[in-house]
Every structure is written in structure tokens, then in C-alpha cells.
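Hi P.,

Sorry for the delay on this. The queue was packed all week, but I finally got your sequence through. Input first:
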Amino acid sequence: MKRAGSREAFLRVDVDYVYAAAKWGKAAGVRRFVLVSSPGANEGSPSFYLRAKGRIERRVSELGFESLQIVRPPIILGERPDARPLERLAAAVFKLLPACVLGKFRPLSGASIARCERDFWLKIL
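Then the structure:
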């Protein structure tokens, strides 16, 4: 949100552009689509961010892809060029809790997410 500069700009990038790409793909004959979203995505959420993620999930699912995977990765651990103090604080707190408590919100490294995605695609291709 900070990088986008405004809520409108955030919606343009995270909802409008993603929807346009999915729609163009569908029109071009794409059968499978993978959408990266967020845990807790829900159009009824009090959080603007989670409402936006819920909106794009709904809009893309309405396009009728033969196969649609919605990926909701947790906090992604790793170095970033921009400062995200709340994310860093949450990751530090979450690391102290057992995985069974956190479930889908357990932070993961970017490398482990990449391995999982690679393994997923190798299975379906």
C-alpha cells in the first residue's frame, strides 16, 4: 500500500491489472490460472487490504478457468529492499510460536515457497 501511494493506486495494481491479465488470458485460451492472494482475503473484511484481495479472488473465479489455484502465502521471510516494520515484528513474534498454533499464518521463507511451487507445477504439468 505504501509503495502504491494511495488506495486507488493499490486497487489499480492489485485488482484491476490482475483482473485484466486474467481476462486477457482467458480470452486467449488459457485454461489454468494461479492467483497469489493473502491469508484472510475476504470482501467483507474490515481491512482494506484483505477486502481488495477478496475482490480479486472473486472476480478471477468468475471468469471460469478450467483450473484456478488461489495461493495465500503467509508472511514471507527474507530480505526486502523496503522497510516493513509491522511485518518484521509479526514475523519475529510468529517465529516464537509453535507451527500448530499458527497453521496457515506460519511465516515461510521465500526459498521454501519457491520449492513448493516448483514441486506443485512439476506434478500437474
